[in-house]
Amino acid sequence: MNKFSSMACLPQDLIGQLDNLGFKSATQVQGEAIEPILQGKDVLVQSKTGSGKTLGFGIPAILQASGSSEPTSLIIAPTRELVQQIAKELSRVASYINNFKIVTLYGGVPLRTQADSLALGANIIIGTPGRIIDHLSKETLKLGSVRTVVLDEADKMLNMGFYDDIIKIVSNARKLEQRVLFSATYPESVEKLANKLLQNPLVIKVDTKIEALKIDEIFYKTNSKYKTLQKILSTKKPKSVLIFANTKQAVINLADDLRNGGHSVIDLQGDLSQEQRDEALIAFANGSKRILVATDVASRGLDVKDIELVINYDTPQDEETYTHRVGRTGRADAVGKAITLLSDKEMNKGSYILAKANEASESNLGIKNSKPLTSNLTTLCINGGKKQKIRAGDILGTLCKDIRIENNHIGKIDIKPTKSYIALNSKVVKQVAKALKSVKIKKRKFVAWII
Prior knowledge:
Blueprint: H1 12-20, H2 28-38, E1 43-47, H3 53-65, E2 73-76, H4 80-94, E3 102-105, H5 111-119, E4 124-127, H6 129-137, E5 148-151, H7 154-159, H8 163-172, E6 178-183, H9 188-197, E7 202-206, E8 215-221, H10 225-236, E9 241-244, H11 248-260, E10 265-268, H12 274-285, E11 291-294, E12 309-312, H13 319-326, E13 336-342, H14 346-349, H15 351-354, E14 358-359, E15 377-382, H16 392-402, E16 410-415, E17 420-425, H17 429-435, E18 448-450
Helix pairs in contact: 2-3, 3-4, 6-8
């Protein structure tokens, strides 16, 4: 890996910021993509999820936008979750630049709210194709200043039927000088889009396959998936596990069954509001919930580090989906495990899985009726966040000094625009919620509740 400090194309203040954030060395995709993107070349990158691609296109976008009063880069991604993840990562890196603004556009948020943000100006715009089209049609979004368009996870966007929307969006950027396309896989549909949009692109292929040493892929042939799942959970006892099912109802049913079995579980699926989806991810990421059951909405853009185990409870629809599901574990330098459950009828449909994964015997799994996976943490929500100038240190100080909670009873603190979430030892969460009825944070009272 190259050190960022050795990359001549990067200014020292950015290198210092990356160093402060713990980014010492560039991943392979970052090392190969950043400089040509900064040079203005059209670039096509095939790279697996978890390879560091966000900063691969994000660092150039930040540098190209610095000093401009209008958006110079438009980043298009398939899902709300991925848009949020990209924005979060780029905001951290760009925080050393005064008044640097990133606007996100996705469904589940009123158009008017986003239009008001756009009217105040932006350096970078990040959005889903459908919501970008909505703003273009209402003329609340102008792309006249955009010089670079980045398509992230192009394969997923095409699978979702966004080809025509992407072409329309790009055609609206009339002063466009550069197109960058990132994709984990390179099916015929992506090749068609690349040929349509990109001009003499530099092609970079990095980490296109799941590394065998990093992700242990196995499958179980089973006549009862739920019984096998119970045995896996009781035997492996993973600290965190992400379970994929194919439909919203299947996710809800499986989460209910696991919850009734005493497991610490939460679900993530399309019927939830944006706030509910955000809170599900927060509770899973901070350890309040050890199991997340999800549809493929979580196979892209899920910003949760150190997922120990991924389980395909339902067989993925295709090899591409399998690749992205499995890629949720073993990210960056971590090692992970991925398990797929296959019924007799699914053995042929999952032939691509059989070619990659090793078969394991259910006889090696333990007794299904052992202790469920539980958590000693509970998440408390406070109705105040960044807009109220609340910082994690303010909350930590109030909990330790005023409410006298021991530091080891306090877990991760997430500060959002209007709310804050605190992972607390379950033994003290009610005490904290009660105390906050009278104790102030930054000289203000805030309502708190358990989620």
